[in-house]
Amino acid sequence: MREVAIIGVGAHATGQFTEKPLKELGYTAIWGALDDAGVKPADINVAYVGNSIGGLLTGQEGVRGQVVLQHSGITGIPIVNVENACASAATALRGAWLEVASGAVDVALAVGVEKMFIGDSARTIGALSAVSELDLSQMGMQFTTSYAIHPKINLKARMKEYGWTLADFAKPAVKNSFNGSLNPLAQHRRALTIEQVVQSRIVVDPLTLYMCASISDGAAAAVVCSADLAKKFTSKTPVRIASCVLRSGVYRLPDDNRPDTAATTAQAAYEVAGIGPEDLEAVELHDAMAPAELMLYERLGLCGPGEGPKLIDDGITMLQGRVPVNPSGGLCSRGHPVGATGLLQIAELVWQMRGEAGERQIDKRPKVAMAQNQGGLLLGQDSAVYSCTILKT
Amino acid sequence: MREVAIIGVGAHATGQFTEKPLKELGYTAIWGALDDAGVKPADINVAYVGNSIGGLLTGQEGVRGQVVLQHSGITGIPIVNVENACASAATALRGAWLEVASGAVDVALAVGVEKMFIGDSARTIGALSAVSELDLSQMGMQFTTSYAIHPKINLKARMKEYGWTLADFAKPAVKNSFNGSLNPLAQHRRALTIEQVVQSRIVVDPLTLYMCASISDGAAAAVVCSADLAKKFTSKTPVRIASCVLRSGVYRLPDDNRPDTAATTAQAAYEVAGIGPEDLEAVELHDAMAPAELMLYERLGLCGPGEGPKLIDDGITMLQGRVPVNPSGGLCSRGHPVGATGLLQIAELVWQMRGEAGERQIDKRPKVAMAQNQGGLLLGQDSAVYSCTILKT
Questions:
Q1: Are the CB atoms for B143 and B137 separated by under 8 Å?
Q2: Is residue A71 annotated as a catalytic residue, yes or no?
Q3: Which superfamily, per CATH, for B4-120+215-239?
Q4: Which CATH number fits domain B140-212+240-392: 3.40.640.10, 3.40.47.10, 1.10.3720.10, 1.10.238.10?
């Protein structure tokens, strides 16, 4: 397998863009990535397009990627539409990586694009929860609710087990809101305090509004090529994909003996890249709800059980800490257009690794970074999707 | 790139299976393929699942493949959901092929599954035509209509240009209905006459009912592995994938100077496989409407302009002819569950190449065969998808 480099990234701002259809959100990201990489549409040999709920929300069920790409002037190549819930864009990147790593092609494009604002948020939430063929007996609640109140998992259980407080849950949101306040592409650009987060209205006890990612429109794209060709296109620092691991499996409940797929996916990514969590200098991770960040710290090996809040208290995962987490603002502040999120994470890390992140630039420019992405978390089912991508300069 | 072999195939019958959800259609195909290949679920390293309209029709928008596969006992691996209209299953096969060819994994599963009968055929047709972000000014008609009456293309124009008659259009349907009558998995198992096809009710002039593929439920799957590992799993003849080409591009109109993507895709497949159309000993092609088969003969290089009907008159593409086309019965008789069709074609060719096709077995067992698949044909847009896979024993 050949070494693969990301040579260009682009993103549309996240937020509410009611007037823009899927293809216009995609256009900005795709042309941003092409310009950044110094490649022309004709240089692209293959494209992977991630989108999750466009069929239900925009009515564009078939050939979504072809529609988005032809609007951007890209045609005549293999185009693969991929879906993996909130990991759809990460899946698109993995497809592009494999095409180039295998030697099948030299240059590939990965796109993630999602339009969630359709003027009917019930329909948007319904589409996110579309699980008609799963056993609904233990479901019947949307993501936020199941995170918050499912008797076996997460928040209430963790408060009991670890002694975590509401203020602890708020800490990632506060940290990330500061980062997001510095990000011109972020959906929410205001630094919050612990008090503001804790006292914002309750969505589902114990989750408050500012602990939850919002509905969001957005798009991101990346151009990847064989590492030895990078200089042909651009003088910018190429960012190598050291590992790109995708898994589907179990979101582990406490009384479940099966391995936790979030942890095994990260472990596999570390092994392939030949590094450990101690080597990471920046992380973008899937904080769809702020407390998830605390739990992911454990699964990624950044800290031991229950130590998440301390990692923030000690400043370790803050913007200028030892391993900054979610410098973009993360899902709660940067935004979470589901099928675009995986590539929004990649774009942020590439900008950070090149020193192009503006006001939110990590002073010690990261040389090793991880994007962690997940989706389809349906309790006790085998349908959770996890992705870890490790980047190096 | 390593040589890749198909070592097992499976299919659910095509037809109306109102009581079966997506996952149960998939189960029969997946377990058929695993049994046929002699592999256990734990042997599968990665899976690609093709489906086109499940989001709109069954409400299962996200992680469709994970739902189907967990029902079949397969979990813990990378699962990639792919969509490419009627070429969704062909796209899944290409994904599985690339995983193994690249050396990323040894054994991969490709699945295509589609549920179209939901008791509301208007919704099914609506989902097939879901093109909300395309320019609808020249559309506003579903597939059958655009094939039949679009002023610039196809049927009426060909009748004028080539002197083709309604009887000529009926010939592929008649040939394929005979093949389908011998196929226990086919949706329509009755041999038709030219008169029956021509005199069946008009769907859109000049297309009659028996010239059109029906709404259909179905599923198919294939297990692929590195060719040098085939014997480890099964004593059956491995079927090598000599080329697997996917393209998106233009369905060319007569006054259009752009290359025709159906033809360029076939040409690329021939080149990679190192063969020409004269070497083919069996073909499964995308006869969603019977006259399309006549036009595809030209695009695949099986005959010159206007010579399609003669190829059938001379018996060349009949079941025991020089190059049998659609031995399964094709889309009009075997059935066309859109996201499964590409792998139904592959399953048929594998059975034929192994001499396992029962009553419809081609006497001279084919050693070189092509599966041709296409979708998303939106006139004059760049969103047509084409796939050609060449198989060899």
A1: no
A2: no
A3: Thiolase/Chalcone synthase (3.40.47.10)
A4: 3.40.47.10
How far separated are the first and last CA of chain B, in Å rounded? 18
- Domain residue spans in chain B? 4-120+215-239, 140-212+240-392
Task: Please count the residues of chain B.
Answer: 393
* Cα distance between residue A298 and residue B154, in whole Å: 61
The answer to whether residue A150 is catalytic is: no
Of the listed ranges A53-57, A323-327, B327-331, B369-373, the least confidently predicted one is A53-57
**Per-residue tokens: B152:** 């610039």
Residue B52 Cα distances to A143, B58, B82, angstroms:
25, 11, 8
Whole-angstrom distance, CA of residue B251 vs CA of residue B143: 13
pLDDT attached to residue B34: 98
Question: Is B93 within 8 Å of B389 (Cβ atoms)?
Answer: yes
Residue A81 · residue A51 · CB < 8 Å: yes
pLDDT at A145: 65
Helix (H, G, I), strand (E, B) or coil at A10: strand
Q: Are A63 and B80 in contact (CB < 8 Å)? A: no
Give the pTM. 0.95
Write out pLDDT tens, residues A99-119: 999 999 999 999 999 999 988
DSSP secondary structure code for residue A184 in this structure: T
Nearest CA in chain B to A73: B382
Phi-psi bin for B38: left (phi > 0), alpha (psi -120 to 50), beta?
Answer: left
Query: Is B104–A101 a contact, with Cβ atoms under 8 angstroms apart?
Result: yes
Rg (CA), chain B: 19
d(CA A215, CA A283): 23
| A171, containing H or E segment | helix A166-181
Instruction: Please give the residue of chain A at the shortest CA–CA distance from B246.
Output: A78
Task: Write phi, then psi, for B43 (nearest 5 degrees).
Answer: -80, -20
| Three-state secondary-structure class, residue A13 | strand
Q: How far is Cα B19 from Cα B182, in angstroms, rounded to an integer?
A: 26
Q: Are A374 and A388 in contact (CB under 8 A)?
A: no
Give the model's pLDDT for residue B139.
44
